[in-house]
Design a protein that fits this description.
Chain lengths: 467, 384
Amino acid sequence: MSRQLDLALIAANRFGLGARPGELKDIAHAPRDWVLAQLETPPLPSDALAALPSSLDYQKQMVEWREQVKSAGDSNDMADQPLKFGERFRDNMLAEINLRATLQCDTQNPVAERLVMFWSNHFALSNEKRPLQLMAGTLEREVLREGMLADFGSLLIAAEQHPAMLLYLDNQQSTGPDSPVAMRRARQKAGGRKNDINENLAREILELHTLSSDGGYDQDDIIALAQGITGWRPWIAARKGTPMGTHGSRFAIGYHEPGARQFLGEHFAQKGVAQGEAMLARLAKDPNTGRFISEKLCRHFVSDTPPAELVHTLSRIYQKSDGDLKAVYQALFKSDLAWQTDTRKFRRPDEYLIAIHRGLDTRPIAKQTGRWRREMHLMGQDAFRPGSPAGWPDTASQWIGADAIWKRLFIAQRYSSRLPRERDAMELARDTLGPSLGDATAVAISEASNRRQATALVLASPEFQWR
Amino acid sequence: MERRQFLSLLAGTASLTLWPGVALTKAHQTQAPRLVVVVLRGALDGLSAIPPYGDSQFSSRRGSLDLGPPSRREDSPLQLDDTFALHPSLAFCHSLYRDKEFAAVHACALPYHGRSHFDAQDCLENGTDSPTGLDTGWLNRAVAALEDSRGLAISSSVPLIARGEAPFMTWSPTPGKSSPEELASLLADAYQADPMLSDAYEKALNAQQIAPNEGKNINQLPVVMEAAGRFLSRQDGPNIAMVQDNGWDTHANQNAVLKNKLRQLDNGIKAVKKSLGASWKHTAIIVTTEFGRTVAINGTQGTDHGTGSAVMLAGGAINGGKMHGKWPGLAALQDDRDLLPANDLRGVFKGVLAQHLKLDRKTLDNGVFPGSGKVAPMPELIHS
């Protein structure tokens, strides 16, 4: 039974989002099946998430707000001034954070939900830019939640065509130098507007989303891909274009750089939106992409230094199955190399906060609307703001620091009053830490002067910082 | 460390070491140089902080943002020389200027000339001309290049400027009155047994001895700069610190916002001088920002993203009582709207690192600010 409990702990904590009361014992009967079953019931958007505005709604609201600001600019009457962006959309931004957090704390499919978080960090958005303050959560809701069980090629195209991604990596600023728009501007000698490609999105697709930095491409490939995806625009920057993807983006041929081009040594003669899509499909088939995705999955689910053999196995499955992600996950969770008891992963601040809620069998308090955001900020992981398209780091050394530890002690103390009356702290420790509960922590809990302190000790213990 | 030692540490009776096992060397004696870098995020309007009231174009170009020439009026700017004054909220800095412990360089800019805050901040921190140039920070690379040097970031996670190979510890204020100190002490054995966490845990405890919970106004500059000074004043502590502050993006009602923000900065410098104690004499503080703001006022009594801004230098080590660098004047403007970038920001940083921390030119050109060989360290920023 003890071996089964070890495996149950890995399933619930390392693969899932933190064990809930009594859960370890249930999982222990068949840990592997518990994990694999979750790949069959995808975490479709909950009703609460479906109630959030779509990325297209958000773009329309921003246009409306911008027009209000513009017309108010002509008036000197302060009463005519519209709300500032942050005030106007504050409730939306908080709802995005809080509903997502509630879902993560509540979900019955924590392994699938962790996979969603993994892909959200792979196709990372960061909300420094104004449109992203509203839209940073929409890619995950609209594309990744369902797409992460499909093949990688489809997921890749859907993610890159999503308006939040196009806005985040500046593709609305990319204009083919020989495109109809650039030609017209040249004839009119319209100054000020740049008539050139913006390489941002193409560069990050190659480096961060597919081949990775040592994946065998060069600057010419970046330019070719950037040209191939010229004209891929969010609705807000091309309202009259041809609909592209399923989330309101547009293909605006006026901005597209015409012509065939060489990309990764192959010829791409497609016209219009098909050219960029063909390039992305080519990237999804590349063994370097399979290796990169496999390695990231193993690093996230197994160890900061993933076993090479497991990475190799997953890469092979990826290649054989044409990037069938479900097949890759199944290979991962079926391999004994993934179920090692002598490796561990340090919980990121969001994972820590989610695990606390799951352990206490509680959820974020709806009326404390700013709390999740504040606590994430306090622990150094601002919600929806990893700060770069590379996403949050996925190794312990990037998260462990003196201030990080102190803030977790503080958070643990804060949540120590939330243990339901009928449970005691030792039960909480056994429920959440199982066989990983060490002697020193157990002694500290048993010597605690009161129930609340004992609860805090469980949540603040070194064991609770790991998954 | 034994549990007994942890507990006596908590009781404040044990001697602290922030970097246990590291011998105290010359670098950490009281007279060894200290450096504080203050990053003002959002783009400080240099023309408000250090108004060039003597420039013939200034008054006409600034409109209601011009607070007038220095005078006996209480809220008038404080005179530095025939051209420049300090914002009236910077009274303590003004007294330092008279004591020759405050200086400034106007019209500074990065090689990055875009108008994106976060791209510019990335460049300011990674020390290159591109936001994706490097994923480590120049301050960390400076610490790495120095012998026995250690950094502190007043932040819950390590900001880009402090990321890299060299040791940087983190500290930031914890809100509320209930410190988790007792909780920490009860978990001493448990944390000590975790090889990955014991060091961070020990540093966290020690840091609390040096800078305990304050409970109020926790993110304001005076609080965090006072704490930075406490860490730097210790012989076993860090010798290089990074402090950051938000809220300098003054698109609207700039005069009111800056009056308050600059007063906080002024109080912050006052607080860090006090907590540094005897180490103040050996300290250089660099106050910097990602870019400047438009010279002209916009429609909402503020300014928009610009180019050149000012760097302030304070501390006992600073060659103060004067303005350094070139002044381009306001007759011609960058893109017809911004203060011209007359001084490369990296030249100012390199000047301080060269003269204060004795980093050689090759290290500065290739290691700390790669590809900056053509940018000379600005001379005479530190007094000899």
